[in-house]
Structure formats: C-alpha cells, structure tokens
Amino acid sequence: MAEVSITNVRKVYAGNIEAVKGVSIDIPDGGFCVLVGPSGCGKSTLLRMVAGLETITSGECRIGGRVVNDIEPSDRDIAMVFQNYALYPHFSVYDNMAYGLRNRGTPKDEIERRVQEASKILGIESFLQRRPRQLSGGQRQRVAMGRAIVRKPQVFLFDEPLSNLDAKLRVQMRVEIKKLQRALGVTSIYVTHDQVEAMTLSDKLVVMSAGRVEQMGLPNDVYRKPASRFVATFIGSPPMNIAKGEVKGKGAVSIGDVVLPVSDMAADLVPGAAIEVGLRPEDLIVTPNGSLTMAVDFIEELGATQLFHGTLGGATLVIQAASGLVPPDSKTLHLTIDPAKVHLFDVETGVRRGL
Amino acid sequence: MVENRTFGDRLAYLILTIGVLVLAFPVYLTFVASTWDAATIINGQMPLYPGPFFIENYYRTLFIGTSGTTREPVINMMMNSFVMAMTIALGKIFISVLSAYAVIYYRFPFRMAAFWLIFLTLMLPVEVRIFPTFKVVADIGFLDTYQGLAVPLIASATGTLLFRQLFMTIPDELLEASKIDGAGPFRFFKDTVLPLSMTTVAALFVIQFIYGWNQYLWPLLITTKDSMQTIVIGIKKMIVTADALTEWQLAMTTAVLAMLPPVVVVVLMQRLFVKGLVDQEK
After folding, report:
1. Domain layout of chain B by residue ranges
2. Residues A247 and A120 in one domain
3. Does residue A352 lie within any of the structural domains?
4. Does A264 lie in the same domain as A162?
5. pLDDT single digits (tens) A90-149
6. What SS3 state is found at A258?
C-alpha cells in the first residue's frame, strides 16, 4: 500500500504531439482516484505512464515515495486491469492468475493459497480450470481482477475495465469494485469515460480535457462547483443546461427577459456583460407559485423521473422532475431555483465566475 | 422439391466419384504395378489387380536397390529425403518465428529495412538464384552434404510473412499484461506467442516438409554421390536408363514409398490443426 504522486508529468509523442501537458495529482494511501474525460484527453496515457507501459517525457511519478520513472512495469509493484481483460487465452483461469507470481519465483504453496483466496473473494472458485474463452464477459472481468489481487500490489490500475460489459453487469461490477477496493484498502487509479462510474467510484475525481486537468476534488464538490463549462457539462446526466445571459447587477443575471437571482457571483462582473448561465436539470424545481415560466415542448418519461424539454427566456432547457408532479399535457411549468445553484461561466474561456 | 434434391445429390455424388476416380486411378495403377514382376508390366498386359510380387519388390527396393542405374537401396534415399525435408521444415519455422518476432516486437534501427529485405527474397526463389547459390555452397564445401541440401532452401520469406501477420493479430494488451506480470521478451515469446502460434507452426511444417521432400532441381545439382541421393532423384534415375531395361516394378515401388512420408505428415498434423483450432482464441 502506498500513496501515488504525479508531478508535472508530460508526454510528448513522436511528431511533437503532446498528449499529456503537465499533470500533477497526489493520491493518498488507499485512495480511489478516477480519471475521467472524453476520448483523447490523455487519461489513458497518464495511467499507462504510471504503469510503466509508456515512458514519461518529463516530470516525476512516485509510488510509495519511490521515483518509478525508469523502473520496469513488473518492478513497480502495480497490477493493471485492462479494458479487454487481456487474459492469456491458452492458460486456464488458475494459470492466468498464477503466471505473474510464478515469474517472480513465488513458492508453489504460496501461489496456491493466494489464488484460492482471491478466487473466493471474487466467487470464481468453480471455474479455475476453465479457459477464458469458456467464460462470460463478467466472469472474465473477475478473473482479470483476480489476476490483479493475487499480486498484492501497492497500486491497482484500471483502464476502462467495465466498458466491454452490458449495462446491467456494469452497474453490478461497479459496486463490487468499490467494495473490493474498500476491503483491500489498495490505492487505485481508475480510468473511464463514463461520468456515472467516475462519480460513484471515486473519492478523488480528476476531470481531464486535452491533456490537462480541468478540475480535481471530491466527486460532490466537482459536481456542485464545476470549475469550468467543460466540467459542468461533462459531469452529470442529463448534462447541465448552459444558456447565454447577461449580468443584471449584483446578484442577478438574465436569460432573455427572465431574471434569476445568483448568490455565487464574481465581484468584478459589471452589469450588461455577457455571461453563460449554467442550470442543472434537477436544480430547477417545479412548484405552482414559481416565478420562472418555462414553455414545454415535449416530455421524456424515464420511470422514476421525467425530463421536460422546453424554452425559458428563449434558451432551450431540460428540466428533471419526479414523475406525477405535473399533468402530462402541461404546456407551461412554473419553476424556482436556489440562487446558490446558479452557475456562471465566462463566455470566452468557460471558466467559472463564482466567488 | 424432394425429388429435385435427391437428383441434385446424386449428380453431385456422380461428379465427386468421377473426380475421385480420375485422381485415384494413377495412384492405384502405381500400386498395382509395384506388385507385379518386370515381364508382366513390359508385355503391356498388366492386370488391374495386385499381383504376387509385393513382398519381393518392396524388400528389393528398400534394402537392395535396382540392378542397373542407382544400385542404392531406397531406404537410404528415403533417409536422405527425410533429413533434408525435416531440416528445411524445422529450420524454416525456427528462423521465421524468430525474425517475425523481432520485426513485430522490437524497435531497432533499420527494422523496416530488414523486413523489406526479407520480403524481397520472396521474389528470388532457389530456381532464380541457383548459380550464385551453387557457387556459395560449393565454396563452403557443402556439396554432397545434408547442410548443402537443406540450408539454401531454409532461407526464404514466406514463413516470416506468415508469422508477421499472425503476430500482428495478437493484442498489444497481452504484451502489456506480460510486462506487468514480469515476463521478459523471451518468456513472453515462449509462454504466450509460441502457444498462440501452434496452428500456424503446424501448417507451415506440413507445407515445408512436402516442399522439401519434393525438391528435385537443387538436390540434383549439388549431390553427385549415390549415397546422398534423395528419393525423388532416385525415381527419375530408375526410369531413364541408357542401355538397360527400366525395372518398372521397382520404379513404381519407389514411387509408392515416396508418397508415404508426406501422407503420414499430413495425417498426423491434421490432428494438431484441429486441436489448435479448438483450443485457442485470441
């Protein structure tokens, strides 16, 4: 077990393509850090640099206080779970899990003990003698996890481990991974492009975009106080509504002719300045005496909740509300919002303009 | 519908039977001829059923040899052919697996140049480069040796290309997983790449064994001693005789014997093919 610290790490590929542009992240011992971002944001490259599968162009990566820049992957005391599992197709499940230990010269009875222990935790004891081909996707995923666990590494690295599974299994495995990580207490770095996975798994969420860290922190902080328009729209589903607006004065902005109160507003915003207003779909609350009026175009039924698509002050908007609150044929909705939940972003840079 | 189908089936079987007969008849005739004596064959009235000289012909061919031209027992020729074919097949597999592994998994200067050089040799089969090759082999002193028979035929690009294509289909993640599991380049090769290549190895072995076994031109050029003759050359020498009667029964016996090892190799390797196909998945 160990803390991981990444300091000013950059990755430049041949042809001067900069995939990771100076990233610093500190993960405490036993922490679960999730790197999330769209494809090509450098999150996988960063993980692979920690694993030692890519060289680090500049900067420093430490695992447990030891600089690992020039250490072979097998000597970094890490274990990695790959997206396509990367199980050895010609080995049995047992051999797949034992292979790494054998290569390190672990005694036979110790290997046996560890494999049995890991397979018990994961519930795969009954097919230790099978080949990966004979297993379902979820079972293969468990074997891949088992291969990581038996090594008793200091750090687990997950590279989109759930994206090859169907939706139901993904939710189930997500919970299991979290439980397992808690139980084992091993520092973990997890790469995903799925923001739900990122929110639920992490105790340190790192949102990346174009090779840089956009924001990092507790998942709820990132969700509640997104540092930029990018983070605001990337985290959360359905995504945050962004509308063009105008500063009306201290603590007020307008979208078209609709005026909203704002409590979290940068002091240097002058009335009349253009601004982008961010509203989370579930923060706009439907209430009969709400001061905001939204014209409804159509309703999406999701079972527990409904999504209302419509316009507010000329801007298109999606609102989420519990089912049954509104008659299905409503053409207008009355809404209200907590002034603390109105987010402001710079029109040019997308940076948060809060306090 | 049912009527039509049975008619179609019958037609298909009819064509199949004709095809099998056309292909099998010469082989059958060869076998029959190897069981009669010379006089029966030469008078042009050889029956189409096996004769009584089976044991005598085969014993004489294998262990004594013909009375005229080659005088070498065929068992020796078979041994020569076998050594040559095995050396070519195994040597080629060894070289091409290693070279393909180097080209795919290592980054070294002039890697692609090396690959294209190997590729270019595809355009230079033995027949094209026969004189320079002969000169080299002669200068090294490999005439009338097993090395001389086999080594020049080992060097060619087909195997390397085949394995290169195969290795490119092995996912990179397997290599990365191996790295994390602490397997070095040799371990990765031995534990992962080779087991995943067994089907291709078996296929290449069959092709190369038969290729080596059937070589005619090259052994003809570099062997002069009777004791280094291969069986294919032996047959040829038995048939073309200057001033004696061709001992057809012995030539036919030799032909039958020459067919057997490739058949055995195909039959044995076929099982490995199937096993390989069933066992693995990339």
Report:
1. 2-64, 74-279
2. no
3. no
4. no
5. 899 999 999 999 998 889 999 999 999 898 888 888 889 999 888 888 889 889 989 998
6. strand
Strands A187-192 and A155-159: parallel
CA dihedral B56, B58, B62, B64 (to 10 degrees): 20
B169 touches chain A (CB under 8 A): no
Separation of alpha carbons A79 and A149, rounded Å: 8
Residue A74 has its nearest CB partner, among B179, B191, B282, at: B179
Size of interface A-B (CB pairs under 8 A): 64
Domain count for chain A: 2
Q: Looking at the structure, tell me whether residues A48 and A77 fall in a common domain.
A: yes
A174 domain-assigned: yes
SS3 B93: helix
Last residue of a domain, one of A177, A197, A227: A227
Q: Could you tell me if A202 and A256 lie in one domain?
A: no
Q: A-side interface with B, Cβ within 8 Å?
A: 51-53, 72-75, 78-80, 82-90, 99-100, 103-104, 131-133, 147
**Which tens digit of pLDDT belongs to each residue from A285-334?**
888 888 888 888 888 888 888 899 999 888 899 999 888 777 777 788 88
Residues A35 and A191: beta-carbon distance below 8 Å: yes
Chain-centroid distance of CA B221 in Å reads 19
Cβ within 8 Å, pair B177-A103 = no
Range of the domain at A337: 241-345
Predicted TM-score (pTM) of the model is 0.80
CB contact, 8 Å: B56 with chain A?
no
Q: Looking at residue B69, what is its pLDDT?
A: 56
| Reduced DSSP (H G I as helix, E B as strand, rest coil) percent helix, strand, coil of chain B, to 5 | 75, 0, 25
Identify the CATH homologous superfamily for domain B74-279. MetI-like (1.10.3720.10)
ipTM associated with this complex: 0.81
- List, for residues A215-254, the tens digit of each pLDDT value: 999 999 999 999 999 999 999 888 999 999 889 888 888 8
**Nearest CA distance, A340 vs chain B (angstrom):** 47
